[in-house]
Amino acid sequence: MKSKQNFETSQPVIVKYVQPTRGDIQLHTYTRHGIGYVMKGRKYIYSGDVRHEVKQGDLFYLGIGNHYTEDIPDNEHPFEQIVFFYTSDELSAILSRLSTSYNMDLSNPHSCSNCNNKDFVIYPAWNMMKNFFYTINSYIKEDIFNQDQTAEALKMAELIYLISSRNDCCIKSKIMGHIDTSIEKFKQVITDNIFNNISIEELAAECNRSLTSFKKEFKRIYNQSPHKWIINRRLMQSRLLLVSTKKSISEIGNECSFPNTSHFIKLFKKEYGTTPANYRNSNDRTKHNGKDRQDTPKQKSDPQLTAQL
Q1: Residue 1 within a domain
Q2: What pLDDT shows up at residue 11?
Q3: In a 10 Å sphere around its CB, with 0-12 CB exposed, 13-18 middle and 19+ buried, how is residue 237 labelled?
Q4: Of the candidates 138, 142, 159, 191, which lies 20 to 30 Å from 248 by C-alpha distance?
């Protein structure tokens, strides 16, 4: 089971991450929500083996759970991003202040296919937001956030204000949708057990719910039954491993909680219309810059602990 570190703090965490050379696909397990901005280079967020590009000057949101990402420097500069990590409790406190003290309208009329039922969002930054992140970069260079936690809290509130002021913003839809801490805890239990040998009944017990209540809540949040959603997530991971590693079909099946290889192949073919071997042959990404890429996507747990500069 993947390791993970939790935060025992009431403060948001602001991180600048610099990647001087192109790395492999990395698996991150987040215990907080993250809103980030790509300052230099480009980033890929993977959904299965489909990758979504975050260009320089784009915002992105990553929800609690597992994410596969790849950071690409440009020809002259390292990849650079700044990310705000926060909990639902921290977000609720900020939104409450904006509403009660400044009478800010926090309604959320926006909804689209880019943000519905997704655990990540990519959105182009507007000029005011770009200027905001350049200011944050200056604060980080001067080490202000480590010296003054108040500055960090104020900048987090300013970020939420800027996003909340933009009605057509997909990221606004996401932050307004996860201020319920009970949903956050529910999702955390599911994320922690995707690759565990655990029954739906045991998952319901972990969430302190009856089986009927658990299935109803799961369908409301994920728009699928628990069994189908978990199987799909495991198959999505297997797709990525097939095109990014040289591991055998049986090894990938085991890693994705399909210990019976023939059953894994049957499920994969039913979902994607082809066998794992044929899928790998048709979508080989294991070669990069003339070299075989044989590593499993690298695991990182809450990278904000190790990436702060």
Answers
A1: no
A2: 67
A3: buried
A4: 191
Locate 273 and state its tokens.
């219309």
Q: Which residue has 């499993």 as its token pair?
A: 296
CB 274 within 8 A of CB 4: no
Domain that holds residue 67: 13-179+298-307
Count up the domains in the chain and report the number: 2
Q: Are residues 163 and 193 in the same domain?
A: no
Handedness of CA 60, 85, 231, 46 (dihedral sign): positive
The secondary structure of 144-199 as a DSSP string is HHHH-HHHHHHHHHHHHHHHHT-TT-HHHHHHHHS--HHHHHHHHHHHHTTTS---
Q: How does pLDDT run across 109-138, given as a tens digit for each residue?
A: 667 777 776 789 999 999 999 999 999 999
CATH number assigned to the domain comprising residue 282: 1.10.10.60
Tokens 């658990």 correspond to 214
* 209, 189 Cβ separation under 8 angstroms: no
Residue 263 and residue 249: Cα distance in Å, rounded? 12
pLDDT band at 2 (very low <50, low <70, confident <90, very high): very low
DSSP-derived secondary structure letter, 32 = S
Q: Encode pLDDT of 155-165 as tens digits.
A: 999 999 999 88
Same domain (yes/no): 161, 216:
no
80 and 115 together in one domain: yes
Residues in contact with 299: Cβ distance below 8 Å, sequence separation at least 6, in sequence order: 2, 3, 26, 27, 29
What whole-number distance in Å separates Cα of residue 229 and Cα of residue 117? 12
Shared domain for 23 and 98, answered yes or no, is: yes
**DSSP string covering 87-154:** -HHHHHHHHHHHHHHH----------TTTTT-SEEEEEPPHHHHHHHHHHHHHHHTTHHHH-HHHHHH
CA distance 93 to 287: 47
Q: Any residues with CB less than 8 A from the CB of 116 and at least 6 apart, and which?
A: none
Helix (H, G, I), strand (E, B) or coil at 303: coil
